[in-house]
Amino acid sequence: RVVVDRLASVLEARKPGLVKQIGVQLDTLDAALQAMKIDGRWTRYPDSSLRQRQQVNAAISAVLETLAQVPQLLQLPAGSE
Fold it and tell me: At 38, phi and psi to the nearest 5?
C-alpha cells in the first residue's frame, strides 16, 4: 500500500482507476487473511478450511495480476529520456 500510495499520481495519470482497484483488492485480501484468525491468533494455513484457503488464494491472485501492470506503467515513453 505504501509503495502504491507513493506512485499514485503517476499511476492515476497513466491508468485512471488503477490505484482504487488495487486498494479494493488489498482490502479484500486483508479481509480474507483476517478471517483466518481465531481468538486473535493466526490459524495455520493447512488447518484453515478449504473455503478460507480459496478466498486467500483468489485475493492474492487478483491483486498480483493487477499489480503486474505497474512496472509497465512506470516506464518512460520512448523518446522522453
Answer: -125, 120
